[in-house]
Each structure stands twice: as C-alpha cells, then as structure tokens.
Write a structure and sequence with these properties.
Length: 303
Amino acid sequence: MYENFKSGFICIAGLANAGKSTLTNALVGEKVSIVSWRPQTTRNKLLGIINGEDFQMVLIDTPGIHKARNHLGEYMMQAVDSGLKDVDGVVYVIDASKGLQKDDYEFLEKNAKKAPIVVALNKEDAVTRETLFVSLEKLNSVEGLVAVVPISAKKGENLEPLMQQLKEFLPYGAPMYPQDEYTQSSLRFMTTEIIREKALYLLDKEVPYGIGVFINKFEEREGQPICDIDADIVCEKQSHKAIVIGKGGEMLKKIATEARKDIEKLVGEKVFLTLYVRVKNEWRDSDYLMKELGYDLKDLKND
C-alpha cells in the first residue's frame, strides 16, 4: 500500500527571530507555532505534520538558537539539540535582512556533516538583490550544504522549491501519524501557547520574557458545545503582575479576548476563558516551577 510513499522528520532550526515558526505554519498550512516579533518566542520543540498524496513530512520547529542565561534558556537549547536527533534533514532559516551571523556559521559547520541541510534564506523580499547575492556567496563557501533557497515565509513566496528539496530527504516508508492530523501538540498545550502569544503582542518590552501559562481547568460542558477554560499567566515580579492586569483590568481583558478568538477556532466551539495572574519569583531558574509550566529538562534529555 505504501510502496512508493515517503515519510520522515525535518528539523527547522535557526537563530532567534529568523522566521522559523512563520515558515512552519506556512508549510503546514495551519497554525502550529505561535509567531511574534520578539526573539525566543518558541520554547518547546513542536511537531507540524504535512500530508501529501505520496508523503508525510513531520516538521520539528525548535526554539531560536541563543546563549542561555537561565534554566529556561538551557531548556530551550536542549530542545534544539533534541530536535536535531535522528532527523532525515534540516532546514536552517537565516534572516536575509540581517545577513549571516557568526552563530549561523558555527551551526552550519558543526551540523552539515551530521544531516543534510538546506538553508532557507528568509525575508528575501525585504533586501536588495545585491545584499541577497552577498549572503548567497558566503553560504556557498560553507561545505556540506545541499542547497540554499531564498524565500519569504510571511508572504509564502518560493516555498515550492524548498518543499521539493525537503521531500528528497525523506526515506520511503509508511506514514507515522494519522493523515488527517497537522500537529501532535495537545489542545491544552496549544491553548497555553495562544494565550502566551497574545501576551507577547500586547505587553511591554521586558515582561513577556518572564511569562508562562498554566491551565487550571479545560472542560467541555456536558451536552453543550461550550468549553470552559481557566488559566494562570505566571510572571516573575509583583510589578509585572500590575502591568499584565493593566489599569482597571483592561490589559488582562484584551489578552483574554484575543486569545479566546483563536482558541474557539482551535476547538471548534464556544469558549469561556478566565485568566488569572500569579507571581512566581524567578520561575525561569526553578526546575520545579519550569516543570509545572511544561518545561522539563529531564524529558528532553531522555528523548
């Protein structure tokens, strides 16, 4: 039945804010990863599933590569290492408007011989041809790269050549997941990510980096197409709590309203969302609190 069928894993990696999550969502055709202009938005490795007539491609969207400054940062970098294990190919995303960075070179030189890598030179629509040519010339000097594809993930430009290249990496085999699924992330997890995404968009500069989301209640009403969700937005300082709540509770209401719209699309029914704000001092350096919020280093090390 699956004699000519291809199936495999592709890791999407790159520096913070290169456009990895935007590319993942564009390739999958559904919202799998939250997107923000802020760096280090993605904290876990996430699976997005592309189902074609003769292939199934499982994309692993990883956190942006950066120097860890706390336990959460260590978790995120461990998620990158975990995402690179036993994959059939890698898409390394580079922001063309910033050009090649030292960390880009280090990653490519370190991993080019471990797995086939294609570079997606993202945001090519935002740079001149001369700037793009300089980046292409530099990438051609890196040994072991399979291909370099200029793209615009946001506009969906030139994604087909990238997909064709990635399909070549896939081995022959049966699909690993049901062919009507586009992610393996649970509804509960996706809900926490949607709430965090809205906070990233709406809050002040420093607060979102210390924000986590914990679901207290996720229940469907018996016999009714209604879902009741209670969640905590966790921040590190009392002063941050006041900012998240806002004057007269206005900011918290905005976050809840924007999050509810997306969650209703996700679950396909009416949602009643209640948000609370809790202070957990320095939670990003607490293994216990990180685990409670869904970031467990032991799980990644055992992966």
